[in-house]
Design a protein that fits this description.
The protein is α/β, with parallel strands linked by helices and 472 residues long. The protein has 14 helices and 22 strands. It folds into three domains: 208 residues, FAD/NAD(P)-binding domain; 107 residues, FAD/NAD(P)-binding domain (3-Layer(bba) Sandwich), CATH 3.50.50; 120 residues, FAD/NAD-linked reductase, C-terminal dimerisation domain (Enolase-like, domain 1, 2-Layer Sandwich), CATH 3.30.390.
Length: 472
């Protein structure tokens, strides 16, 4: 058994682990990253964000080819198989792994491969692939092990027609129809992906509407466009039992309905990857979903052990996880300018995309905040005409009196990019956070960014005449 000693050991090489490692090593700390995979990147790179978004991008390109009149003049519409579009995703994964491995090496961050388990609050054992063990000592630890799809006991995930959001990446065929159980972010994203592959989709939603945390107008737009893609959305439904056969499955719902499909994709819940880590040895408890509880500094109940990323729950976003890792590392190192993850922009990679930051209409109404709305529809924007992406809207919510921007919501192509302009202005201090910025700023033409000017003018024009006089 080999012994190693570090200032910080990070368990998990996803975004949270990477952010913490890079931050700590810049402070002169000796840092090691432990992961069960021989290739870095964590679930984000190998099973989640990167492959699913690369897959979506390929499908989106195929949809554009099949719908643009210019391409129709040279041939009939064509669909690639699921495995063919996954080839492009595999290339992206390889590039991501190569780049991240280079960065770890360049920064002299030691990589250990194996399964980590705590012995006490300063030691872990590392079980390697050959069955041998290493013992690693560290002043601090960061748990950044991510999460995995939740598996109900009565669903047979070993059946060749039943998948979760990890195993679906190994699908070797394009099913003619698929049931997606769970209409959260992952379920909605895969519903639009499979619809783009010309697969008939039944999306079973256990709740009343799609993605209830969205602004109502955006949620309605998502529902409309999923149906426009021939996705059948079934709200307020729960499964009773699942029957399997050689070439497909039948899902019986509690309402009595029976749905048949060639495949089932289970997207209903995720659990923190904390099993068999020896957390009980250090008195560290997890909740029913396997998630670790932390304070504002990402510190657990054990002072020298921190946690970040999906393993702590909300917001479970790769970008936020990276900065959570940075923040945790800064607190360990005693830095006074520790970055705190607060105003997180959310990106949802359906087709079309959704992104938002700040409050939505329901929240502002409940809080009795007097707000107004400015909208810009993509169908009125020159850049959208050029790109052929005319479906979408940018929506700005702002205070009727102070003109402070309270929330920005976007539905349409490149929404996750567009949102950051609004986020940047929202984060400006004092009166600099005002919708007037977009009116007094000249935007390149034609661009999608111009939507902010159009939405701002639209919103200002909604104010009454007396308010507009005060604005000048």
């Amino acid at each position: 058994m080999a012994d190693f000693q570090y200032d910080l050991v990070i368990i998990g090489s996803g975004p949270a682990g990477e952010g913490a490692a890079m931050s700590a090593v810049k402070q002169g700390w000796s840092v090691a990253v432990v992961d069960e995979r021989a290739m870095v990147g964590g679930n984000c790179t190998h099973l989640g964000t990167i492959p699913s978004k690369a897959l979506r991008h390929s499908v989106r390109r195929m949809v554009q080819f099949n719908t643009m009149p210019m391409f129709r003049s040279v041939g009939d519409p064509r669909w690639c198989s699921f495995s063919e579009v996954m080839e492009a995703a595999d290339q992206v994964i390889r590039k991501q792994v190569e780049g991240r491995t280079r960065e770890y090496s360049r920064n002299r961050i030691k990589l250990h491969t194996g399964r980590a388990a705590f012995v006490d609050d300063h030691h872990i054992t590392l079980k390697k692939a050959d069955g041998t063990y290493d013992k690693i000592q560290s002043r601090y630890f960061l748990i950044a092990t991510g999460s995995s799809p939740y598996h109900p006991e009565d669903v047979n995930f070993n059946h060749p027609c039943i998948f979760d959001s990890d195993s679906i990446l190994n699908l070797d065929r394009t099913p003619r129809n698929i049931i997606i159980y769970g209409a959260g972010v992952i379920g909605c994203e895969y519903a639009s992906i499979f619809a783009g592959l010309d697969t008939r989709v039944d999306l079973v939603n256990t709740r009343e509407g799609l993605l209830s945390f969205l602004d109502d107008e955006i949620s309605d737009a998502l529902s409309y466009h999923l149906r426009d893609l021939n996705v059948t959305v079934r709200h307020k439904e729960e499964y009773n039992k699942i029957e399997t056969r050689d070439n497909g499955i039948t899902m019986e719902l509690k309402s009595g309905k029976r749905i048949h499909a060639e495949a089932l994709l289970w997207c209903n819940g995720r659990s923190g990857n904390t099993k068999n880590m020896g957390l009980e040895e250090i008195g560290l408890n997890v909740d029913a979903r396997g998630q670790v509880t932390v304070n504002d500094n990402y510190q657990t109940s054990v002072d020298n052990i921190y946690a970040a990323g999906d393993v702590i729950g909300w917001p479970a976003l790769a970008g936020a996880a990276y900065d959570q890792g940075r923040s945790a590392s800064a607190h360990m190192c005693g830095l006074s300018n520790a970055y705190h993850v607060e105003d997180v922009a959310t990106g949802i990679y359906t087709i079309p995309e959704i992104s938002f930051v700040g409050k939505n209409e329901s929240e502002l109404t409940e809080q009795q905040v007097p707000y107004e709305i400015g909208r810009a529809y993509f169908k009125n924007i020159a850049r959208a005409h050029i790109s052929g992406e005319e479906v979408g809207v940018l929506k700005i919510l702002f205070h009727q009196e102070t003109l402070e921007i309270l929330g920005v919501h976007c539905f349409g192509a490149e929404a996750a990019e567009i949102i950051h302009i609004g986020q940047a202005i929202m984060n400006q201090p004092g009166k600099a956070n005002s919708i007037e910025y977009f009116i007094s700023t000249t935007f390149n033409y034609p661009t999608m960014a111009e939507a902010y000017r159009l939405a701002a003018i639209n919103g200002i024009n909604r104010l009454n005449r007396e308010s507009r006089k005060l604005i000048g």
